[in-house]
Amino acid sequence: MNLLPHPLIDADTASISDALDLLGIDGCLPGLARISGSGFVAGPAFTVRYRPVEPTEGGPAGDFIDDVPPGSIVVIANGGLMDRTVWGDVLSTVSRAKGVAGTVIDGVCRDVDRSRELGYSLWARGGYMRSGKNRVRLAEVGGAVEVCRVRVVPGDVVCADGSGAIVVPQEAMPAVVDLVAKVRNVERQIVAATLDGERLSDARARFGYHALARPPRGG
Questions:
Q1: Helix (H) or strand (E) holding 78
Q2: Hey, how many other C-beta atoms are within 10 angstroms of the C-beta on 39?
Q3: What is the CATH number of the domain that holds 44?
Q4: Is residue 152 part of a domain?
Q5: Residues 45, 114: one domain?
Q6: Is residue 55 located within the same domain as residue 95?
Q7: 156: CB partners within 8 A, 6+ apart
Q8: Looking at the structure, do residues 110 and 145 belong to the same domain, yes or no?
Q9: Shared domain check, 103 and 55
Q10: Structural domain boundaries enclosing 194
Q11: CA–CA distance, 35 with 125 (Å, rounded to integer)
């Protein structure tokens, strides 16, 4: 659910991925799958980074949710850890009430059933029940993070749907918006032509479909 308008609100991650391919940008976040929620969401990244605790440390994992603006997507870098969670139903409940668009985690989350009941949009490497308290600590909020080997900075646009999550660098947004419109227009023309009796291979060739999956020369 998007509560704020966004230029890519009518897009999908597949067409955005095609646009980034044409620009020579790798923004896909491999290994993440939709855990809860539905539909396509897009919004500026609100970045959070965790680190494992030292043997002498303890205490809570950390608080940040009160500072997340409506319409944002929380991006949590937890190093892909699969045995300690950094998100649960309390955060999903508060985020939904605040109008946060969704959460993307390089790691795992818990209370999955409750997040699904809420319809809150959440992507992660999977579900797991063990708390992150006394296992991870909040290291930084609002800095550059690495998620699934992709660098994300505050203001980059995170887009996600049933196919996964992808990051659009903010400086590439104008070009991506234009290319997404072009990709989707070509695909619509191809589908219309094939439904009208044309061979798919001929329609793809006629509308230049294969060129949309190839980076430009020198890119």
A1: strand 73-85
A2: 14
A3: 3.50.30.40
A4: yes
A5: yes
A6: yes
A7: 44, 45, 167, 168, 169, 170
A8: yes
A9: yes
A10: 175-213
A11: 9
In a domain, 202, yes or no: yes
The verdict on 204 and 111 lying in the same domain is no
pTM reported for the whole predicted model: 0.87
By CB neighbour count within 10 A (0-12 exposed, 13-18 middle, 19+ buried), where does 79 fall? middle
Q: Outline where the chain has alpha helix (H).
A: 13-23, 89-98, 112-118, 173-195, 200-206
Do residues 109 and 87 make contact, with C-beta atoms less than 8 angstroms apart?
A: yes
At 5, is the pLDDT very low, low, confident or very high (cuts 50, 70, 90)?
very low
pLDDT in tens, 103-155: 999 999 999 999 999 999 999 999 999 999 889 999 999 999 999 999 999 99
In whole angstroms, what is the distance from residue 109 CA to residue 95 CA? Answer: 14
Give me the phi and psi of 156, to 5 degrees please: -60, 150
End-to-end CA, the chain: 34
Q: Are residues 19 and 34 in the same domain?
A: yes
Rounded Cα–Cα distance for residues 45 and 147 (Å): 12
Torsional class of 54: left (φ above 0), alpha (ψ -120 to 50), beta (otherwise): beta
**Residue 107, SS3 per DSSP:** strand
- As a whole number of angstroms, the distance between CA 114 and CA 135 comes to 23
Is residue 6 situated within a structural domain? no
pLDDT per residue as tens digits for the range 74-96: 999 999 999 999 999 999 999 99
Angle formed at CA 167 by CA 162 and CA 168, multiple of 5 degrees:
125
148 and 79 part of one domain: yes
